[in-house]
Amino acid sequence: MDEEHKARLFELADLILAISRHVHSAKVDTAEPWTPLEAAVMRFIDHQPGATATQAAEATRLISSNFSRALRKLEQKGLVHRQPDPDDARRVRLYPTQKAAENLTHLQDAWSRLLVGAVPDVAEVDAVITTLRRIESQLLDRARGGSGRG
To answer: What local confidence, expressed as pLDDT, does residue 107 receive?
Structure first.
């Protein structure tokens, strides 16, 4: 990788972090408060209801103790519930609660208000979403031991 490409990738990561700080702060008073670790776990469970704790911990790249603490807090807040796996009694499945769905609706409203007008062209929004999903997919693939290329 040449220095210019390296600098552009750094700028991309830096902008993602800066935007995420704005997005995170926009949720104040609109939804259940959470830490960044709790947000990572909740996001995975929202996207993958019925996942196991092991799957969620691996996908969020959290060490076991941090993942367990975040999951416990989400349960205490009434955002996640565990359900026994019907195929293996030693395993539990994680599901978002109704309160989590309501919280998600509040976040959707707050974050949409924050971003309205920032990218007025729907096609541009779709292009950015597609690009960010591809980046996330590549990073998840690498975390699971895949090539991360392609």
So the answer is: 85
